[in-house]
Automatic annotation (TrEMBL):
Family designation: Belongs to the peptidase M24B family.
Protein name per its UniProtKB record: Peptidase M24
Bilayer-spanning residue ranges: none
Organism encoding this protein: Haloterrigena salina JCM 13891
Record keywords: Hydrolase, Metal-binding
Domain annotation Peptidase M24: ranges: 161-378
Domain Creatinase N-terminal: 8-153
A Pfam match: Peptidase_M24
Amino acid sequence: MRSPFERRLEACQRRLERTDAALAVLVPGPNLTYLTGFEESPSERHLLLFVPRVGDPVVVAPTMYDAQLRTLPIETLAVRLWDDDDDPLEEIEAVLAELLPAGDGDPGSSQGDDAPTILVDDRMWATFTQDLRECAPAATFDLASRVLEDLRLRKDDVELEALRRAGEIADRVSLEIRSRGTDLVGRTEAALASEIERLLAEYGGGDPAFETIVASGPNGARPHHHSGDREIERGDPIVLDFGAFVDADLEDGTGRYPGDQTRTIVVGDEPADKYDRYERVHEVVREAQRAAVEVVEPGATAGAVDRAARSVIEDAGYGDEFVHRTGHGVGLEVHEPPYIVADNDRELEPGMVFSVEPGIYLEGEFGVRIEDLVVVTEDGAERLNESPRGWETGDNVQ
């Protein structure tokens, strides 16, 4: 049976055929991990995966990665190694000579309309792009997202299972924090953020998917507040935005998928008097999120989801205080397509996963954001988070 990565590589090659590109070249990052299961941080060393339109994929890498690369579940993957005292461009030029159409003796030397197109990783360092241009001087270059974006948009069953587990872990942590109620009074934002990350790990998560946000009182009006030394007071609204990576069950390969949930809670039986508008604002945001999720189904556009949330907030008179898009795709990256923004006409398809996270931010007062991840199903949407969305804590959770 073929591994998930062999199926993904074949799908990539089919898309290269449709775009008439000769090959894609990828560097360490989410695209390479998606196609091979190999995960490594970018570095100054030349480690490149070549996926030709026709033929077997080739990876050029430093010798130190030999053992890791040869355990990948891809039978057709050719591994070409270079040592630190070698010139890696010689190996790259040799690979290009094999994979690009024959010309006048130099790789990619066909001219005019016959010049081969090389799709490079969108985040490839300029130095590697320049090396490829030097090795294939007549080739034209474009971005690998032309073939990989659509592949990564629709999550397969293994990816969805990982994202569901990440959602369940976030739900457990959300319930635990809510249950503490007024025990949170006097804790600093930073201390509570550390406690959330400890719980994420205790309940089965890996590294935090992003910097945990604990934004209390007026700090909640900053959508990407950095948790600080402000002490939580009784009656404070608190924006909690967190999640952890979990490993997907991908045989011998790697794939980490994140949770991403936001709740806005109040410590105590009710908001403090200085937050007199809080309950009304929270209900507006909650209704905006509900309206947006109800729009999600195959054939609806990403922009329609954004407009559904935004119209509720605008009708309530807070349009100017909703200062970001309604959501973003989630997969190997915490932020990836599809982006849930007003002018995005991309139609939703089953298997797409993205956040729905409207918010209202009143500078100097407080903020409210409610976020769930959703997956597009054959006939609607499935929420990957089910913890309470109200503001109540302690014994008053709803």
